[in-house]
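Q: A reviewer asked whether we had any structural model of the full assembly, not just the individual parts. We don't, so I'm hoping you can provide one. Inputs are below.
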Amino acid sequence: MHPMSKAKIIMKKMTARLVKSCKKLGDVNILSRVVLYIAICMVIVAAGMFCFYRPAREAVFSHENHTIVEVKSGDTLSKILGNNGFSMRDIDTISKNLKKDADFTTLRAGRDKIDFVRADENAPISKIIIENGPWNRIEIDCGTPDTWQCQKIEIERDTRISYKQGEIAQGSSFYLSALEAGIPEGIILDVYDLLAFEMDFERDIRAGQKFYVLYEENFASDKKVDNGHILAVSFDALRGNVQMYRYVKPDGHSGYYDENGNGAIKSLKRTPINNAKITSKFSGARKHPVLGFTRAHKGVDFRAPTGTPIPAAGSGRVIARSYNRGHGNFVKIRHNGTFETLYAHMSKFAKGVNVGTVVRQGQIIGYSGSTGVSTGPHLHYEVIKNGVHVNPMTVKLPAIDNLDAANKKTFMERKALIDSTIKSLQDNPEQIIRLNGDETINKK
Ligand SMILES: [Zn+2]
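A: Here is a predicted structure for the entire assembly that you could use as a starting point for your response.
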């Protein structure tokens, strides 16, 4: 309804009511009637002003004018503000306030937007809104010159839990089968990272292997904005089913643990034989250009009397079990697309370890000795990253993390809740299950 006609109706109704009540007061004296009529007129005028004034104010708001600038490569806040008529002095004050009051650091090209808001087309800029990420925006109040108050406003995050399951199709990769199952690309890449030392996604994928992922999806006002963490992942690897659950410790640190509460993010052990003493360090020195001899030692030597069992530093596939003049009997394991390890001078190989064998971390692959070029029994251990020998003691590897008894107990409760959530979503994929800010799960 048009605001004018609404106001007219209200006025008509009020006048009718007043006239009716005046008729009831038929025998009041003239003076009282005059006072009454004046009062009626004042009420009508006031009502009229009230009714017409409000729509007028609303009309101003509906004409609010937005000039949106998308941040491009090479843009700075100063440049954008300067282009929109702000003086150097104002830009300086705004920059200082942004840093102090809104934790603002920098604009991100291709992602951020700046919205200059005016009351109407011809009015001066009253507010600057910096959209500096999906979950917050910064508002700068331009109504108070020389103050430029800044405020960071967090956008409320509605986190829902999504469950997707799939199976490796004949001749397909995990990546394609996961996309087919509806798993977003970012989550697939996170799965690769989580399982990097569990399996080789290039070589150890077989048709029929089943997998599932439980992960967070973040919504703002019912619109999906991005994906959050993986809460649980399961994969039927060649060496058996691998399960991981995310758990946030009371101190806020989070990690992934297996179904028994042991650290699930596997890595390479820097020292395959526990507590073995290093007898020769890694040295990357190249061949001396003048003297001609090389001082490079491409691995680390550990003291190990003949016959000491040598465990695999990480899960993987044996790609060499052989003999050469330098290494003597050696085993080489490929762990993933990035890492390989090599174990040399073995006196003998472990039974059942052949080229192609899939081994677990800690599985015995052979026994120490002094075969090849060696001055005495020891383990010579090499780590090869993307084809290049690296120092096993310093190469960056994921940390292996285990839970203490108290955390393990809380973890098992968490695991039960996640398992029941998976069951609910398997039974009814359409239902919305939310993850609250305190990590509790809200099934409605
Ligand atoms: Zn060595």
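A: Points you may want to mention in the reply: The first strand starts at residue 65 and ends at 70. Residues 65-154 form a domain with the Nuclear Transport Factor 2; Chain: A, fold (CATH 3.10.450.350).
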